[in-house]
Amino acid sequence: xxxxxxxxxxxxxxxxxxxxxxxxxxxxxxxxxxxxxxxxxxxxxxxxxxxxxxxxxxxxxxxxxxxxxxxxxxxxxxxxxxxxxxxxxxxxxxxxxxxxxxxxxxxxxxxxxxxxxxxxxxxxxxxxxxxxxxxxxxxxxxxxxxxxxxxxxxxxxxxxxxxxxxxxxxxxxxxxxxxxxxxxxxxxxxxxxxxxxxxxxxxxxxxxxxxxxxxxxxxxxxxxxxxxxxxxxxxxxxxxxxxxxxxxxxxxxxxxxxxxxxxxxxxxxxxxxxxxxxxxxxxxxxxxxxxxxxxxxxxxxxxxxxxxxxxxxxxxxxxxxxxxxxxxxxxxxxxxxxxxxxxxxxxxxxxxxxxxxxx
Length: 359
Known about the structure:
Elements: E1 2-5, E2 14-17, E3 27-36, H1 41-46, E4 63-70, E5 82-85, E6 88-90, E7 100-102, E8 106-108, H2 109-116, E9 127-131, E10 135-137, H3 146-149, H4 152-164, E11 172-176, H5 181-192, E12 197-202, H6 205-215, E13 219-223, H7 228-238, E14 243-248, H8 256-263, E15 266-274, H9 290-295, E16 299-302, H10 310-319, E17 329-334, H11 338-347, E18 353-358
Parallel strand pairs: 11-12, 11-14, 12-13, 14-15, 15-16, 17-18
Antiparallel strand pairs: 1-2, 3-4, 3-9, 3-18, 4-5, 5-10, 6-7, 7-8
Helix pairs in contact: 4-5, 4-10, 7-8
């Protein structure tokens, strides 16, 4: 089959013929119809992000495709079924805290790297081999819509954070990093889930205006000044009531002070979920005040990716019409133009923009 291969970090992808994957028990072979290209894929492939990813490797995290072959232990999946290929591969022998690898992207810890040696190659290819439980049915779709369904990848990460904080209808959420890809996905999801209000702080006025135009009065934009006390006060004042929860998706380039200012808006008993990259490239620590956390009963939680049980819930939100994939504009590239797709994903990074490969 044809695949885009990374032979060494810092080198361009090489589109070439590779050996077709062969499945065993507990695995599914999927024909890739559309694979998302992350906005920071170039940073992964260059080695700048220092992700644990051995080379040579076929990169690519997640895809929308159709089942080609199932293993002997699959009782419901059938060839031809449309599925989301979940890149979050979990070891089956590690409950309640399984080792995890992100197929085609990275791994967590020694156990995750061991898992990665087997589930190594990702979705920048004509076919991908995934664990049976990672081929998540999405129902019939128009093949022309496969690119838009790639938004599921970012949406699931955002949804994982909202589920981790037990976000409920009627709540007020502040999304730190709302003008980015994952942050804007959180905005769309929270409103689809019945948020009373979503506070969206940022410095990009054009994006904030676009969010307001898309989602109406329940979306409240706040322009950040860079002064922590001023910004915290402005975010609190923007909400129609107290802020119940904060979800942070700021990138590694952001200062910890921006995240801290957002978290300090929380009401007593509020929850904060951290899912971004603050501190990954150095800089100051988050340094939240201990007395404030204790006296105000604040919960601060880290969340990496999502539980597999989140997938049916997200698909249900889309199928119900509560979450509209038509917000996402798609730019598609053939597999032969994989390097151009990586460059485009970085150049066109931002809310509701998708770059996809269509093998």
